[in-house]
C-alpha cells in the first residue's frame, strides 16, 4: 500500500458512515490522507474514524445532514480546524427509494433530489469557498462528485434517482467551468451495481414494489444481462478510481465522470 500517494491531502467525505463512502474514507487514509468522516449517522462515522486511527491514520467524525448548509459549513470548518486545510471534497452522500414511474410522489421526488442533488451542490459550494480562501497557489484542489450508471441512462423504477444523478453530472460539467480559475478541478466517478447496505435495501424494496420476485434477483439479473463482466461490484472495485481522482495523477483532468460499472454503460 502506497502511504504517500495521498500524503498532504486533507479530505472531507460525505455519506461515509458505511458502504462505498466508508470504504473510500478508509482507503484514502491508507494512502496517506487525513480524513473527515461525515454522515447523518454519527455512530457509523465514529466507527469508521476509529478503524482508521487503529491502523495509524488520522480521522475525525462529524455529524452532517448534507441538505443543511449550516451543517456543511460546520463540517468544512471541522476539517480545517483538525487538519489545517481542505484539499479534497468527496460528495458521496446519496439515497434511493424505488417506485414505478406512475407511483412517484412529490415526497419521493423531493427527498431524493434534496439529498443527492441539492446536497451535492451545497457541498461543492462550501468546499470551494474554503479552497478559494486558501489561495490558488496552494492547489490544485479536488472536488469529486459520486455519480452513477444512472447519470448516463434511466430505469423506470428509479426515475427520481436517475434525475438526481444526471444533476450530479451537470454539476461536474458546470462546476469544472466555474472553478478552474481558482485551481479547483471537478470530476466524478459513476459506480454501477455495488453490493453495499444501500443496494441490499434497494433490492428488498424492488421486490416489495413487484419489480423482482425474490431477494438478490435484481443484482443477479443485472449482472447476467447488462454487465459485460458478468458480476456486480464491491466497494473495493471503486476505491482505486476514487483515490486517482484525489491524487496528483489526475491534476490535468476536469469536468469528467469516470464509469466504474463493469461495462454496463459504454459511450
Number of strand elements: 7
Overall residue-averaged pLDDT value = 94
Uncertain spans: none
Fraction of residues in β-strands: 5-15%
- How far apart the termini lie comes to 33 Å
The topology string of helices and strands comes to EHEHEHEHEHEHHHE
Query: Number of helix segments?
Result: 8
Kindly report the spatial arrangement of strands forming the biggest sheet: 3-2-1-4-5-6-7
Percentage of residues assigned to helices:
40-55%
Note the main sheet.
Answer: 7 strands, parallel
Q: What's the overall geometry? A: globular
Radius of gyration computed on alpha carbons = 18 Å
Backbone structural class: alpha/beta
Brief rundown of the structure:
The protein is an alpha/beta fold.
Describe this structure in words.
The structure is a single chain. The model has no long low-confidence stretch (mean pLDDT 94). The chain is globular. The chain contains 8 helices and 7 strands, in the order βαβαβαβαβαβαααβ. With 267 residues, the chain is an alpha/beta fold. It has helices at 19-30, 42-54, 69-83, 106-134, 159-179, 197-208, 217-226, 239-246; strands at 10-14, 34-39, 58-63, 88-91, 141-146, 184-191, 257-260. α3 (69-83) runs parallel beside α4 and α4 (106-134) packs parallel to α5 (159-179). α5 links the parallel β5 and β6. Helices cover 45% and strands 15% of the residues.
Amino acid at each position: 500500500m502506497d502511504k504517500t500517494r495521498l500524503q498532504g491531502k486533507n479530505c472531507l467525505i460525505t455519506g461515509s458512515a458505511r458502504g462505498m463512502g466508508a470504504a473510500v474514507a478508509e482507503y484514502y487514509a491508507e494512502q496517506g490522507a487525513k480524513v473527515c468522516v461525515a454522515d447523518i449517522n454519527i455512530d457509523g462515522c465514529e466507527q469508521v474514524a476509529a478503524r482508521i486511527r487503529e491502523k495509524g491514520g488520522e480521522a475525525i467524525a462529524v455529524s452532517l445532514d448534507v441538505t443543511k448548509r449550516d451543517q456543511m459549513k460546520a463540517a468544512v470548518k471541522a476539517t480545517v480546524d483538525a487538519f489545517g486545510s481542505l484539499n479534497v471534497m468527496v460528495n458521496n452522500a446519496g439515497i434511493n427509494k424505488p417506485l414505478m414511474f406512475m407511483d412517484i410522489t412529490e415526497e419521493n421526488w423531493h427527498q431524493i433530489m434534496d439529498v443527492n442533488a441539492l446536497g451535492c451542490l451545497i457541498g461543492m459550494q462550501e468546499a470551494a469557498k474554503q479552497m478559494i480562501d486558501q489561495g490558488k497557489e496552494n492547489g490544485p484542489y479536488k472536488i469529486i462528485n459520486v455519480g452513477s450508471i444512472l447519470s448516463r441512462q434511466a430505469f423506470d423504477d428509479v426515475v427520481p434517482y436517475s434525475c438526481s444523478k444526471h444533476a450530479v453530472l451537470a454539476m461536474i460539467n458546470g462546476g469544472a467551468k466555474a472553478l478552474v480559475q481558482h485551481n479547483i478541478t471537478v470530476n466524478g466517478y459513476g459506480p454501477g451495481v455495488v453490493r453495499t447496505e444501500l443496494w441490499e435495501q434497494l433490492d428488498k424494496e424492488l421486490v416489495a414494489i413487484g419489480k423482482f420476485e425474490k431477494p438478490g434477483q435484481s443484482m443477479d439479473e443485472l449482472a447476467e444481462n447488462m454487465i459485460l463482466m458478468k458480476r456486480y461490484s464491491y466497494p473495493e472495485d471503486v476505491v482505486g478510481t476514487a483515490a486517482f481522482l484525489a491524487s496528483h495523477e489526475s491534476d490535468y483532468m476536469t469536468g469528467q465522470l469516470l464509469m466504474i460499472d463493469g461495462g454496463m454503460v459504454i459511450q
